[in-house]
Every structure is written in C-alpha cells, then in structure tokens.
Amino acid sequence: MNVKPYPMKFVPAFKERVWGGRALERFGWRLPEGPIGEAWVIADHPNGVSQIANGAFAGKGLDEVRETCGTAWFGEKGIGRNGRFPLLVKLLDCNDDLSVQVHPDDGYERLPPGEQGKTEMWYVLDARPGAKIIYGLKPGIGRAELEAAIREGRIMDTLRAVPARPGDTFYIPAGTVHALCAGVLVAEIQQNSDTTYRLYDYDRPGLDGKPRELHIEDSLNVIAYAGSGAAHKSTDGARPGEWLELAASPYFVTCKGVVQGEWRLATTPDSFDILVVCNGEGAVRWADGAEPVIAGDCLLVPANLGEYALDGHMTVLRSRLPDA
Ligand code: ZN
C-alpha cells in the first residue's frame, strides 16, 4: 500500500474513570455513557489504540499505520523501544481528584514486561477558579518521612499543592509525585506507557465499588525525593508565530504556538510533529490537501511530509522527538 503522507486526525479511545465527567463533550465528541476521564487521542498501546479519522487511513488504528509506514512516517527514532509509537497524547477531564501517584523511569527493575517508564507533561486547557494540582513533595520530605506519613494517614500534609490556571504547564519527569485535582481539563503528552503506582486514593471506592489497589512499595522505590515539582509555569508570554518551549525531555520537546493567519512549518525526516489544538479554529494545509481543525483535534504530521502550514486563529501545542 503506497499512501502519500498527510496530517492525520484521530477518533479517540475513551476511558471511563471514577474521577471523570462529561466535559470532553465540548470538543464535539460523542462520549460513551458514564464518567469519562480520558480521551486517548494519539495512542498505540495494548490498553488503547486511537483510530485515524481522515484520508486514506480513515478507520485504521495507529498501530496499523505504524506497521504499514514505520519510520518513513514516524521518523528515524519514531519507533519506541517497545516497538510502538513512542508517545501517548490524552485529554483528561478531572471532574474529581485523581489518585496521588508516581511513575517509574525506564530503568526500574520491576516494570511490567514490554512496558517503559513514564515522563509526562500537562498543559491546562481549562480550570475552575481555585483549582489546584498536587505537584511534588514539600521540602524536607524523604523516604522515611513519607513512609511515616502514609502509616499515620496524613500523606496529604507532605504534598505540595499549587494553583492551576488555564495556560499553565507542568513538567512531570518520572519519579515526581503528582495528582490532577478536581476542576481541570488538561492535555497530557507522555511516553507511551500505562504504568502508574498509586500512593493514595482518598479512601474512595473505584468503579466496581471496591477501593483501587495501592502500590506503596513501588512508589517509595521510584520517587525522586529531592528537587521534584519545580517546573510549573504560566505560558501567557507566547507570541504569535513564535514557539514557546514548555518542556524539553529526553522523550519529547513540547512548545506552545499562537496561530494568527498563516504559519508555514515543516517536518524533518527525524521526527513527526504532533499538534494539539487547544482553542480556536483553522486549517492545516499541505501540498496535496487541507483539513479543517477545531479545539480538541490532535494531528500527527508525518516526518516525510515536509512543508505544511497552519492557518486560522488558534492556540496549538507542538511536540517532536528531541534532536540529540
Ligand atoms: Zn501521571
């Protein structure tokens, strides 16, 4: 099958979550019933695969595109060490608090087979007034202090809570204790991994009525105790036509861009571009076609597409694989 590269749009895989809601309907998606917490918009993972919505691959899974087009479309480093697409992009509706959690890095010896670590970042699309996020430990909290606090039922006293406003961004390297809290809608860009260690779940029942499993020992093993939770910033300074860097990790580099009119861009053979449309509307154009885009759309622009342009009035996040 010889398909010319084109920017792909997606039909997400939706996930029911005890903390989810209905806010993802604002993007025009038809949600399954129940509290929907996650839309896996660009996903190639055993626990969720997103479907292509447009063009020659419409109706196919991202896994089939990988098998057909491989590194030509994804770039020379575009297949992760698990043999799949290297990143996972989600939109999350946090109608209630998420569990307090931490993710391991690639080197953790108790990772499930075939899994990798998880470094992630959030961009706050919307937030209720007063919303906050749990981001790192308070100063002076080491493993012994955290263990004691868990034993004594006062873990919340050891965690840093910071305000979350629309446009804020948080970088969460593996090892950072974190929790999204009620009232935020976020875009999440992460390593293609689904490994989470839960430290605390507010003593609440899960979707099946039973408390969700905690993973205290694994959590204590993988937490980066010193200096975590230091990369939270506002992104109000983004100017039209200039990329503002939000996070530079070994796995992805994510920037924010404000589109006002036409903005000419190009992919290079070493990486795809992932675009998340945060607000506004417009179009993506390339040599052979054009596609309208609205808030909530995520695009995967193949590495071998080359020149393309965004047009309209919108805010986008662009993620690429790092150069080095
Ligand atoms: Zn997480």
Description:
With 324 residues, the chain is mainly beta. The protein has 2 domains: 8-232, Sandwich (Jelly Rolls), CATH 2.60.120; 244-320, Jelly Rolls (Sandwich), CATH 2.60.120.10. It has helices at residues 62-74, 143-151, 216-222; strands at residues 8-11, 13-21, 36-42, 44-45, 48-49, 51-52, 87-94, 100-102, 120-127, 132-137, 159-163, 168-172, 178-180, 184-191, 197-200, 232-234, 244-248, 253-266, 273-286, 289-294, 298-301, 307-320. A hairpin with a 2-residue loop joins strand 19 and strand 20 (289-294). The longest helix is centred in the N-terminal third of the chain and has 13 residues, at 62-74. Residues 101, 103, 120, 178 line the site of zinc ion.
- CATH topology of the largest domain, anyone? Jelly Rolls
Q: Which spans of ≥5 residues are poorly predicted at pLDDT below 50?
A: none
CATH-level-4 superfamily name of the largest domain: Jelly Rolls
Order of helices and strands: EEEEEEHEEEEHEEEEEHEEEEEEE
CATH architecture of the largest domain: Sandwich
Bound ligands, named by name, code or SMILES: zinc ion
What is the CATH domain class of the largest domain?
Mainly Beta
How many distinct helices? 3
What is the distance, rounded to the nearest whole angstrom, between the alpha carbons of the first and last residues?
32 Å
Residues in β-strands, percent: 35-45%
What does the main sheet amount to? 8 strands, antiparallel
Secondary-structure-based class equals mainly beta
The chain-level mean pLDDT equals 94
For the record, the count of structural domains works out to 2
What is the subunit arrangement here? Answer: single chain
Structural shape: globular
